[in-house]
């Protein structure tokens, strides 16, 4: 018994060729590779507004992201203490803001590929 025939509407019979700049191609291919799709499937899903899979994150980046989240949680606890109205003898409020901004920058670089 052979494989069942596909319906005519589900066959990919039509080919569409497009031109793009080298920069556009690099961006599209990087985005497709990041989420584990072929370039053609990535473009097809974007053009038809179908959902894209979540970005694949390497185990190293995942561990880094978890650790950064823990640090951020500790910083939020410290910020809550500082903002509670208790006198800040060490003037850490400004330093906390700088560290939070740095953490946000690092997190965005881990997950920063545009889909």
TrEMBL record:
Protein name as annotated: Plasmid mobilization relaxosome protein MobC
Gene name as annotated: mobC
């Amino acid at each position: 018994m052979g494989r069942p025939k596909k319906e005519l509407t589900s066959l990919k019979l039509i080919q569409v060729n497009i031109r793009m700049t080298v920069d556009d191609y690099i961006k599209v291919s990087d985005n497709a590779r990041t989420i584990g799709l072929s370039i053609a499937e990535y473009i097809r899903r974007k053009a038809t507004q179908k959902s894209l899979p979540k970005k694949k994150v390497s185990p190293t980046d995942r561990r880094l992201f978890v650790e950064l989240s823990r640090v951020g949680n500790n910083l939020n606890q410290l910020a809550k203490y500082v903002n509670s109205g208790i006198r800040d003898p060490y003037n850490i409020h400004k330093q906390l803001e700088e560290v939070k901004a740095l953490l946000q920058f690092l997190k965005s670089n881990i997950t920063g590929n545009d889909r």
